[in-house]
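stage 2 :: seqdesign
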């Protein structure tokens, strides 16, 4: 009985470790979301404000090259995100990929010339610390096998 339990613990701990391929998927989720959002924001700077009274601007936005590139990158992000969710809990994937907020902030500051306040940087720093906690845990919740009656 004890040997079976130890074997199950070894299998569950090795089954849900992050392989280099899985790390790559998580990195693609982080970078894809940040770069995709950056490209959308860059395009929307050119398009301008969209409101309910001028929905034609929305259609013009979809034709903007920056927006088109952002949509394509976000499609790649979505494919990687779905892949990650196939082998990890959502409660692991989203916090673990939240480091993308740092990438987004850096792209916004240096390429969109946004002013990022100290309180925003503090918030981003807290996210990074939280990512460290999440990354140390398992990627998948183990559910006890149902007992056979």
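stage 2 :: out
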């Amino acid at each position: 009985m004890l040997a079976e339990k130890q074997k199950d613990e070894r299998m569950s701990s090795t089954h849900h470790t992050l392989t280099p391929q899985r790390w790559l998927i998580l990195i693609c989720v982080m970078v894809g979301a940040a770069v995709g959002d950056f490209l959308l924001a860059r395009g929307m700077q050119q398009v301008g404000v969209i409101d309910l009274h001028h929905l034609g601007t929305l259609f013009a936005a979809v034709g903007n090259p920056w927006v088109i590139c952002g949509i394509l990158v976000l499609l790649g992000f979505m494919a990687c995100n779905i892949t990650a969710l196939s082998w990890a809990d959502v409660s692991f994937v989203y916090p673990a990929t939240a480091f993308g907020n740092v990438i987004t902030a850096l792209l916004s500051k240096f390429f969109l010339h946004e002013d990022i306040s100290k309180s925003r940087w503090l918030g981003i720093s807290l996210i990074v610390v939280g990512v460290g906690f999440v990354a140390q845990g398992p990627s998948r919740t183990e559910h006890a096998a149902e007992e056979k009656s």
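stage 3 :: structure notes
- Residues 21-135 form one domain.
- The chain has one domain: 21-135.
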